Amino acid sequence: MPPRFSIIIPAIHEEAVINSTIEHLETLDASASMEIIVVDGDGSGKTIGAVRNGNVKTAISEKGRGNQMNRGASIAQGDIVIFLHADTRLPPDAFDLMEGALNDPDCIAGAFDLAIASGRPIYRLIAKIASFRSRLTRIPYGDQTFFFRRVYFNEIGGFASIPLMEDVEIMRRIKKRGERITIISQAVTVSARRWEKEGILVCTLRNWLLISLYFAGVSPERLSRFYKDTDKIIASRTMLFC
What we know:
Strand content: 15-25%
Number of helices: 10
CATH architecture of the largest domain: Alpha-Beta Complex
Structural class: alpha/beta
Radius of gyration: 17 Å
Number of strands: 8
CATH topology of the largest domain: Spore Coat Polysaccharide Biosynthesis Protein SpsA, Chain A
Strand order of the largest sheet: 3-2-1-4-7-6-8-5
Mean pLDDT: 92
Distance between the termini: 53 Å
Order of helices and strands: EHEHEHEEHEHEHHEHHH
Shape: globular
């Protein structure tokens, strides 16, 4: 029987975490009715080469999260496709929650509230703001774990092949179609590693600036160059103080 759920994990240089993510998924209640697809954006396939579970499907695609997720969806067999970041953990009843949301015929896609894996109050505040923003705008971000009816995902053409903001672009497209995105109140939990590496203030302000520029009409290609330039500056600063 085909699986009910297809979990697609776009990854690049995630050899250190990919197996723990797969093991986490296998602890969930509906794990027997899912398939896991890891799509590597690195042509050398280092991440998929590290996968120990022989039941996991693997593929290589062009770099870019949108390209990777589309590649995974192209080989998915589940009725529901789920796009999970490699450093993210689903709540224990995630499959039931997604199934319940999509049982509503008016719902064709959804995401979760956000939590960050840290006990520090500042991270709880960042997560609460992110969850509130997504509920207010009805435009969640990719780290909130998108899920779709596969038929619908294919119907709208999947993610745009752009270097950045593919998550915001597809949600805006759905919203413009007048269709409903459900945001589940239980949270997925993402690693705090990005904030810890870049610095909480720098990471948060850069994210806000990128999304503001995108909504103002700056192209994803220009935003991608800006992101890479600031990433080099952050990396240089980190090396300087190490």
